[in-house]
Amino acid sequence: MKGTEANEGLDRRAVADVWRHTLSQIPSVFGRLVYLSGLRNPNSGRYDHHGLALVFGADDSNRALKKSHKQVFAEWLSFNLEQQMADLNLYLSDLPEEKKTVIQAWTLLKPYKNLLPSNAKPVERRLYLSELQTMLELIKGACGVDDLGPDS
Question: Does the global pTM surpass 0.70?
Answer without folding.
Answer: yes
